[in-house]
Amino acid sequence: EDKVVQSPLSLVVHEGDTVTLNCSYEVTNFRSLLWYKQEKKAPTFLFMLTSSGIEKKSGRLSSILDKKELFSILNITATQTGDSAVYLCAVDGDDKIIFGKGTRLHILP
Amino acid sequence: NAGVTQTPKFQVLKTGQSMTLQCAQDMNHEYMSWYRQDPGMGLRLIHYSVGAGITDQGEVPNGYNVSRSTTEDFPLRLLSAAPSQTSVYFCASRHYKGLEQYFGPGTRLTVT
Predict the structure, then answer these.
(1) Tens digit of pLDDT for each residue in A92-103?
(2) Is-contact B88 B107, C-beta < 8 A?
(3) Interface test with chain B among A10, A96, A98, A104, by most B beta carbons within 10 Å
Protein backbone atom coordinates (compact mmCIF):
# COMPACT_ATOMS: atom_id res chain seq x y z
CA GLU A 1 0.00 0.00 0.00
CA ASP A 2 1.34 3.41 -0.96
CA LYS A 3 2.07 5.72 1.94
CA VAL A 4 3.70 9.03 2.78
CA VAL A 5 4.83 9.78 6.33
CA GLN A 6 5.79 13.25 7.47
CA SER A 7 7.55 14.30 10.64
CA PRO A 8 7.25 16.12 12.86
CA LEU A 9 3.49 16.60 12.75
CA SER A 10 3.85 20.01 14.33
CA LEU A 11 6.70 22.37 15.07
CA VAL A 12 6.96 25.70 16.86
CA VAL A 13 10.11 27.81 16.44
CA HIS A 14 11.18 31.43 16.77
CA GLU A 15 11.57 33.80 13.88
CA GLY A 16 15.05 33.49 12.40
CA ASP A 17 15.44 29.81 13.22
CA THR A 18 16.12 27.17 10.57
CA VAL A 19 13.74 24.22 10.30
CA THR A 20 13.94 20.84 8.60
CA LEU A 21 10.79 18.96 7.68
CA ASN A 22 10.95 15.27 6.85
CA CYS A 23 9.07 13.07 4.42
CA SER A 24 9.46 9.33 3.87
CA TYR A 25 7.49 7.33 1.36
CA GLU A 26 6.63 3.94 -0.09
CA VAL A 27 4.99 4.04 -3.49
CA THR A 28 4.66 1.86 -6.56
CA ASN A 29 6.24 3.21 -9.74
CA PHE A 30 7.61 6.40 -8.22
CA ARG A 31 7.57 9.35 -10.60
CA SER A 32 8.13 12.41 -8.40
CA LEU A 33 7.89 13.87 -4.91
CA LEU A 34 6.14 17.18 -4.38
CA TRP A 35 6.08 19.73 -1.57
CA TYR A 36 3.16 22.09 -1.00
CA LYS A 37 2.44 24.93 1.42
CA GLN A 38 -1.10 25.28 2.72
CA GLU A 39 -2.46 28.26 4.58
CA LYS A 40 -6.19 28.76 4.97
CA LYS A 41 -7.05 27.60 1.48
CA ALA A 42 -5.94 25.19 -1.25
CA PRO A 43 -2.32 23.98 -1.23
CA THR A 44 0.19 25.95 -3.26
CA PHE A 45 3.01 24.20 -5.08
CA LEU A 46 6.59 24.60 -3.83
CA PHE A 47 8.83 21.96 -5.43
CA MET A 48 8.82 18.85 -7.53
CA LEU A 49 11.75 16.45 -7.13
CA THR A 50 12.47 13.58 -9.45
CA SER A 51 16.22 12.91 -9.16
CA SER A 52 18.26 11.94 -6.14
CA GLY A 53 20.79 14.34 -4.71
CA ILE A 54 19.80 17.42 -6.67
CA GLU A 55 18.75 20.28 -4.43
CA LYS A 56 15.91 22.52 -5.48
CA LYS A 57 15.98 26.06 -4.07
CA SER A 58 13.56 28.93 -3.96
CA GLY A 59 14.66 31.81 -1.79
CA ARG A 60 14.95 30.57 1.79
CA LEU A 61 13.36 27.21 0.97
CA SER A 62 15.24 24.22 -0.35
CA SER A 63 14.54 20.54 -0.76
CA ILE A 64 16.40 17.39 -1.66
CA LEU A 65 15.39 13.82 -2.47
CA ASP A 66 17.08 10.53 -1.63
CA LYS A 67 15.54 7.84 -3.84
CA LYS A 68 17.63 5.08 -2.32
CA GLU A 69 16.43 5.80 1.21
CA LEU A 70 12.93 6.90 0.02
CA PHE A 71 13.23 10.18 1.83
CA SER A 72 13.04 13.93 1.28
CA ILE A 73 13.65 16.99 3.43
CA LEU A 74 12.40 20.54 3.16
CA ASN A 75 14.59 23.20 4.75
CA ILE A 76 13.51 26.71 5.59
CA THR A 77 16.25 29.10 6.71
CA ALA A 78 15.83 32.42 8.53
CA THR A 79 12.16 31.67 9.15
CA GLN A 80 9.59 34.47 9.15
CA THR A 81 6.08 34.62 10.61
CA GLY A 82 4.74 34.38 7.07
CA ASP A 83 6.19 30.87 6.84
CA SER A 84 3.60 29.68 9.35
CA ALA A 85 1.52 27.10 7.48
CA VAL A 86 0.99 23.40 6.97
CA TYR A 87 3.64 21.86 4.71
CA LEU A 88 2.46 18.87 2.73
CA CYS A 89 4.58 16.23 1.10
CA ALA A 90 3.07 14.17 -1.72
CA VAL A 91 4.27 11.41 -3.98
CA ASP A 92 3.28 10.79 -7.58
CA GLY A 93 3.19 7.11 -8.47
CA ASP A 94 1.00 4.87 -10.62
CA ASP A 95 -1.03 7.80 -12.01
CA LYS A 96 -2.12 9.10 -8.60
CA ILE A 97 -0.73 11.56 -6.05
CA ILE A 98 -0.84 10.56 -2.39
CA PHE A 99 -0.29 13.05 0.43
CA GLY A 100 1.16 12.81 3.92
CA LYS A 101 -0.63 14.29 6.92
CA GLY A 102 1.47 17.43 6.81
CA THR A 103 3.69 19.31 9.23
CA ARG A 104 2.03 22.26 10.96
CA LEU A 105 4.73 24.92 11.36
CA HIS A 106 4.20 27.90 13.65
CA ILE A 107 6.76 30.71 13.72
CA LEU A 108 6.78 32.86 16.86
CA PRO A 109 7.76 36.53 16.42
CA ASN B 1 -8.18 30.80 -18.24
CA ALA B 2 -10.13 30.02 -15.04
CA GLY B 3 -8.00 27.04 -13.97
CA VAL B 4 -9.84 24.59 -11.71
CA THR B 5 -13.28 25.68 -10.53
CA GLN B 6 -15.46 24.03 -7.89
CA THR B 7 -19.06 24.62 -6.93
CA PRO B 8 -20.56 25.12 -4.47
CA LYS B 9 -18.11 26.78 -2.05
CA PHE B 10 -20.19 25.77 0.97
CA GLN B 11 -22.94 23.19 1.46
CA VAL B 12 -24.95 21.87 4.38
CA LEU B 13 -26.72 18.54 3.98
CA LYS B 14 -28.89 16.41 6.18
CA THR B 15 -27.95 12.78 6.76
CA GLY B 16 -29.21 10.64 3.90
CA GLN B 17 -29.42 13.41 1.32
CA SER B 18 -27.52 13.13 -1.94
CA MET B 19 -25.67 15.79 -3.84
CA THR B 20 -23.04 16.38 -6.50
CA LEU B 21 -19.92 18.50 -6.07
CA GLN B 22 -18.93 20.02 -9.38
CA CYS B 23 -15.37 20.36 -10.68
CA ALA B 24 -14.26 21.75 -14.01
CA GLN B 25 -10.92 22.68 -15.55
CA ASP B 26 -10.11 24.55 -18.75
CA MET B 27 -6.45 23.58 -19.10
CA ASN B 28 -7.09 20.40 -21.12
CA HIS B 29 -5.53 18.32 -18.36
CA GLU B 30 -5.90 14.58 -18.67
CA TYR B 31 -5.60 13.78 -14.97
CA MET B 32 -8.17 14.88 -12.39
CA SER B 33 -8.55 13.92 -8.74
CA TRP B 34 -10.81 14.44 -5.74
CA TYR B 35 -9.40 14.77 -2.23
CA ARG B 36 -10.94 15.33 1.16
CA GLN B 37 -9.19 17.10 4.01
CA ASP B 38 -10.20 16.70 7.64
CA PRO B 39 -8.75 18.68 10.57
CA GLY B 40 -5.22 17.58 11.35
CA MET B 41 -5.03 15.41 8.28
CA GLY B 42 -3.39 15.83 4.96
CA LEU B 43 -5.35 15.34 1.77
CA ARG B 44 -6.79 11.87 1.24
CA LEU B 45 -7.47 10.73 -2.30
CA ILE B 46 -11.08 9.73 -2.95
CA HIS B 47 -11.18 8.99 -6.71
CA TYR B 48 -9.07 9.93 -9.67
CA SER B 49 -9.23 9.84 -13.45
CA VAL B 50 -6.51 9.63 -16.10
CA GLY B 51 -8.80 10.62 -18.96
CA ALA B 52 -12.36 10.82 -20.19
CA GLY B 53 -14.19 7.57 -19.53
CA ILE B 54 -11.57 6.26 -17.07
CA THR B 55 -11.87 6.50 -13.28
CA ASP B 56 -10.29 4.64 -10.40
CA GLN B 57 -10.57 4.47 -6.62
CA GLY B 58 -8.18 6.25 -4.31
CA GLU B 59 -7.60 5.77 -0.57
CA VAL B 60 -11.11 6.54 0.73
CA PRO B 61 -13.67 5.86 -2.06
CA ASN B 62 -16.58 4.48 -0.02
CA GLY B 63 -19.72 6.58 -0.16
CA TYR B 64 -18.63 8.49 -3.25
CA ASN B 65 -19.13 8.02 -6.99
CA VAL B 66 -17.44 9.78 -9.89
CA SER B 67 -17.72 9.87 -13.65
CA ARG B 68 -15.62 11.49 -16.38
CA SER B 69 -17.69 11.93 -19.50
CA THR B 70 -15.62 14.90 -20.74
CA THR B 71 -12.02 16.02 -20.28
CA GLU B 72 -13.20 19.21 -18.55
CA ASP B 73 -15.60 17.91 -15.90
CA PHE B 74 -15.17 15.53 -12.98
CA PRO B 75 -18.20 15.60 -10.65
CA LEU B 76 -18.19 13.87 -7.27
CA ARG B 77 -21.46 12.36 -6.07
CA LEU B 78 -22.41 11.65 -2.50
CA LEU B 79 -25.09 8.99 -2.66
CA SER B 80 -26.39 9.14 0.92
CA ALA B 81 -24.57 11.74 3.01
CA ALA B 82 -23.27 10.80 6.45
CA PRO B 83 -21.80 13.02 9.20
CA SER B 84 -18.43 11.29 8.61
CA GLN B 85 -18.37 12.97 5.20
CA THR B 86 -18.18 16.42 6.77
CA SER B 87 -14.95 17.74 5.32
CA VAL B 88 -13.32 20.13 2.88
CA TYR B 89 -13.21 18.71 -0.62
CA PHE B 90 -10.57 19.68 -3.16
CA CYS B 91 -10.54 18.90 -6.83
CA ALA B 92 -7.22 18.93 -8.70
CA SER B 93 -5.98 18.49 -12.24
CA ARG B 94 -2.67 18.07 -14.03
CA HIS B 95 -1.09 17.20 -17.33
CA TYR B 96 -0.40 13.48 -17.89
CA LYS B 97 3.34 14.15 -17.99
CA GLY B 98 3.27 15.14 -14.34
CA LEU B 99 4.56 18.53 -13.30
CA GLU B 100 2.43 20.66 -11.04
CA GLN B 101 -1.04 19.65 -9.85
CA TYR B 102 -3.50 22.54 -9.82
CA PHE B 103 -6.11 22.73 -7.07
CA GLY B 104 -9.57 24.20 -7.03
CA PRO B 105 -10.59 26.51 -4.16
CA GLY B 106 -12.37 23.75 -2.23
CA THR B 107 -15.92 22.98 -1.10
CA ARG B 108 -16.68 22.98 2.62
CA LEU B 109 -19.36 20.35 3.26
CA THR B 110 -21.19 19.87 6.54
CA VAL B 111 -23.51 16.90 7.07
CA THR B 112 -25.84 17.15 10.08
Answers:
(1) 987 899 999 999
(2) yes
(3) A96
